Amino acid sequence: MNAITFEILKKDTQSKARAGILHTPHGDIETPAFVAVGTKGTVKGVTVPTLRDIGLQTLIANTYHLHLQPGSSVVKAAGGLHTFMGWDGPLLTDSGGFQVFSLGVGFGKTVSKVTREELDAESKIATVFDQEVASQHGKLAQIDDEGVSFTSHLDGSLHRFTPERSVEIQHELGADMFFTFDECTAAEADHTYQQEAMHRTHRWAERSLRAHRQNIEAGTRQGIFGIVQGGRFEDLRRESARTLADMEFDGFGIGGSYQKQDLDTAVGWVTDELPENKPRHLLGIGEPEDLLKGVQQGIDLFDCVQPTRLARTGTVYGPQGKKMTLTRGEYTLDFSPIDASCECPVCRTYSRAYLSHLFRAHEMLGATLGSVHNLYYLIQLVKGERARLLNS
Q1: What is the total count of domains within the chain?
Q2: What residues are labeled active site?
């Protein structure tokens, strides 16, 4: 019996959008859904009870970081990541492949999930390498066909990830769903390199799947997702999706980095090829307009650090999703809520002026309240798309 199953309730007649339910050992996820990023077993600045209160269904943690601190053996001894962090709902872990890329060919480059020239000048999204990421890892990563060797940013110790080791760690973490070890590439990489990385990802996917299936007990409580690569090239994206579709995965992630138009092309090519009866997760994409495009292309799950990272710089989603930087002087005497139509606990309680004060005074509460509002906004945005589909 599979650990997870996916049920499609309604398909859109005008697009590839669909509304469904993803059944997991720790409860159901109504899809499409936004997945909060809890890299180290925490969504930065937000407590688990608050996450529940704002309607979050699931979150994703990071294998690379939890391996380094506190160590998967500690998490296992606690009873798994659910118990360790006090989250009783569905949970995912990624493989660390994104971090592998940032340590290797991406190190020292400002490369993002959406390429830099495509970004709104006022926004700052999750980059593969920037000052924050630079503080999270060491300066060595050597990728080969067997895996990757890297140094710890904590103590400089040398570590080795292979597909099998990544699966072993994720078994110890115990999330309901986890991703295979892959090589994440930049949108700008040429066809030759994208093809090389894609084939390596496919070989690693086979090895990850084999390692997971050999652990019978883990197979009864955890689903495994393969990750599609191929960059911005249609032939590679379709080949990768078809190759992984032929493997017995429980679901699929769509990886790599993009330009804005790729959400209508590269993502669409992939969903054309993937089986309809398996869930699809678009990794690392979280701008409101990108979520809506993804839903139209048949994506079921999205994750991104965007809402909490923006909030830590004082930027929140205002009416119609327009970004507001609350540190600006115009909000000093603005006693209205961020969005009068928003029903989140922040908008029900606090004014723009108060939040502006918190950010200007460098009070931690500002980042927390901004994060709560931004998460709520994206959760409700995708939830609204689901309701629209079901009612159409």
Answers
A1: 2
A2: 94, 303
